[in-house]
């Protein structure tokens, strides 16, 4: 019997069902009892019960596009901090051009921001990055915002509606990493407006008419100027 | 003889409680738990890279806990810093959380737990453990269950739940203090200490009464966590 329904918020250790069919985010005790493993939201399907965590740090998945910061330069690779539990490695072979080994700080130095892809995750949860492809590059140092990665879908909106609204209103260039790091480029005032809009989204992310709120913010700013 | 409690509570009644989560913006998870005049704040950072590196375990995460009493938390100023009592309580909280958090899911990482007691009126290790468990859940860590901890004991001839400082210092007939931590839905004991003297039968009764108290605390913990997302579940 399933004790929960879709969109229920559950805490760790809650008994979800006793039919022994649990998906991700659950664990089995004995052979039948399915318990929740996370503080999260329930999804019930034919194949069993899943729990998606509502809070927590970013967990890398293969294929994610992220923004990271170089924190160490070795002779053959860079170590990159992507706000995940572990540092990741970007090998010198995984960039678009042939890098001169032992002189990697000529291309990327400590403190540089990069837009890259998580392309491999090992069994021990270590991840490798790759910058092969036209959309990946080093980002000029600029304003950075960080939001909870669980709230990113709200910032992007339906088919990018929300982020396009912010981009159009502020004439800023915005790059979103799936790890919750957001890079904003533009004129000084516009950047500040874009950042306050992002902050508003983070604070009010459970509001159903969030887009109206953001529009109001821009309206308010325009009247002041 | 101890016939009526100093604060007129029933013998199996808890002090009034408050709980809330997500109070420290810079932490990954945080919680506050208040029971009577005892109040504990917990913050969880991580999972993150292990520092110092030699403590790293290849197959599981490690929990680093630090319990601290603020200088103004007790009538006589508590000397700031990490003393032997803090060390002991940090250790028992770590051991309890090790049972609750599924460490094997986060190999090679470290979870930093900080607990600060801003007001102390007995039962600080139980309040700290309760707050720390809520903060861990709030930080999105995989857990088997929350931990609900409560102190029970025997004062004179009566078995009591949730002792205050006044009761702990009761002299006629002696006072025994037993902090107990439970995984409520697993019916598992993760913390059991005993300060004083008690017979085997009485200890069983004390654990029974503690279990009832812990169940109430568990309900409060769940409600405090769910309150943060109550808007979302309605829509």
| Low-pLDDT regions of chain B | none
Order of helices and strands of chain B: EEEEHEHEEHEEHH
- Helix tally of chain A equals 4
Number of extended strands of chain B: 9
Assembly state of the chains shown: heterodimer
Approximate helicity band of chain B? 25-40%
Coarse morphology of chain A: flat
Provide structural commentary:
The complex is a heterodimer of chains A (225) and B (235). Chain A has 225 residues and is of the alpha+beta class. Chain A has three domains: 9-53, Beta Barrel (OB fold (Dihydrolipoamide Acetyltransferase, E2P)); 65-139, Nucleic acid-binding proteins (OB fold (Dihydrolipoamide Acetyltransferase, E2P)), CATH 2.40.50; 143-224, Ribosomal Protein S8, Chain: A, domain 1. Helix content of chain A is 20%, strand content 32%. Chain A has four helices and 15 strands. Chain A has helices at 152-156, 161-170, 188-203, 210-224, and strands at 9-10, 15-17, 26-29, 33-36, 40-45, 48-53, 65-73, 77-81, 88-91, 113-121, 127-130, 137-139, 143-146, 173-176, 181-185. Chain A has a five-stranded mixed beta barrel. Chain A has a three-stranded antiparallel beta sheet with strand order 1-5-6, with no helix packed on it. In chain A, helix 2 runs parallel beside helix 4 and helix 3 (188-203) runs antiparallel to helix 4 (210-224). Chain A is flat. The model of chain A has no long low-confidence stretch (mean pLDDT 90). In chain B, 29% of the residues lie in helices and 29% in strands. Chain B has five helices and nine strands, in the order E-E-E-E-H-E-H-E-E-H-E-E-H-H. Chain B has helices spanning 84-100, 124-138, 165-168, 200-227, 230-234; strands at residues 17-21, 29-35, 38-49, 62-69, 109-119, 148-155, 158-161, 175-183, 188-192. A five-stranded mixed beta sheet of chain B has the order 1-2-3-5-4. A four-stranded antiparallel beta sheet of chain B has the order 7-6-8-9, with helices on both faces. In chain B, a hairpin with a 7-residue loop joins strand 1 (17-21) and strand 2. The mean pLDDT of chain B is 92. Chain A binds chain B through residues 7-9, 11-15, 27, 29, 35, 37-41, 53-57, 85-87, 124-126, 206, 208, and chain B through 28-29, 46-49, 58, 100, 102, 106-109, 137-146, 183-186, 221-222, 225-226, 229-233, 235.
């Amino acid at each position: 019997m399933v004790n929960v329904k879709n969109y229920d918020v559950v805490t760790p250790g809650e008994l979800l069902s006793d039919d022994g069919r649990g998906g991700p985010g659950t664990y089995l005790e004995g052979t039948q009892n399915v318990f929740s493993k996370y503080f999260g939201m329930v999804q019930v399907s034919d194949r069993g019960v899943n729990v998606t965590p509502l809070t927590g740090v970013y967990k890398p998945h293969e294929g994610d596009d992220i923004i990271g910061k170089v924190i160490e330069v070795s002779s053959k690779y860079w170590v990159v901090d992507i706000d995940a539990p572990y540092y990741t490695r970007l090998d010198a072979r995984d960039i678009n051009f042939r890098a001169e080994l032992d002189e990697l700080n000529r291309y990327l130095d400590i403190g540089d921001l990069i837009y890259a892809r998580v392309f491999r995750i090992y069994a021990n949860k270590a991840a490798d990055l790759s910058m092969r492809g036209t959309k990946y590059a080093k980002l000029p140092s600029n304003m950075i915002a960080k939001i909870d990665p669980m709230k990113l879908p709200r910032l992007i909106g339906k088919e990018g509606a929300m982020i396009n609204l912010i981009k159009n209103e502020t004439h800023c260039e915005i790059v979103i990493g799936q790890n919750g790091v957001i890079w904003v480029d533009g004129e000084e005032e516009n950047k500040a407006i874009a950042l306050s809009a992002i902050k508003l989204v983070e604070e009010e992310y459970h509001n159903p008419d969030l887009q109206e709120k953001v529009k109001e913010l821009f309206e308010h700013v325009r009247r002041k100027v | 003889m101890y016939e009526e409690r100093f604060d007129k509570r029933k013998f199996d009644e808890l002090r009034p409680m408050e709980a809330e989560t997500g109070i420290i913006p810079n932490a990954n998870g945080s919680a506050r738990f208040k029971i009577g005049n005892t109040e504990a704040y917990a913050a969880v950072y991580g999972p993150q890279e292990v520092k110092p590196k030699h403590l790293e375990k290849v197959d599981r995460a490690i929990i680093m806990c630090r319990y601290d009493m603020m200088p103004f938390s007790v009538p006589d100023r508590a000397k700031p810093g990490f003393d032997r009592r803090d060390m002991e309580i940090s250790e028992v909280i770590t051991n309890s959380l090790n049972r609750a958090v599924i460490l094997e899911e986060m190999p090679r990482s470290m979870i930093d737990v900080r607990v600060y007691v801003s007001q102390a009126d007995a039962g600080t290790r139980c309040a700290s453990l309760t707050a720390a468990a809520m903060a861990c859940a709030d930080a999105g860590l995989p857990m088997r269950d929350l931990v609900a901890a409560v102190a029970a004991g025997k004062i004179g001839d009566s078995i009591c739940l949730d002792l205050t400082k006044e009761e702990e210092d009761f002299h006629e007939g002696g006072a025994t203090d037993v902090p107990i931590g439970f995984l409520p839905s697993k019916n598992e004991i993760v913390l059991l200490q005993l300060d004083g003297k008690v017979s085997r039968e009485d200890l069983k009764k004390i654990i029974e009464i503690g279990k009832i108290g812990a169940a109430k605390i568990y309900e409060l913990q769940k409600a405090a966590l769910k309150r943060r997302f109550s808007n979302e579940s309605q829509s």
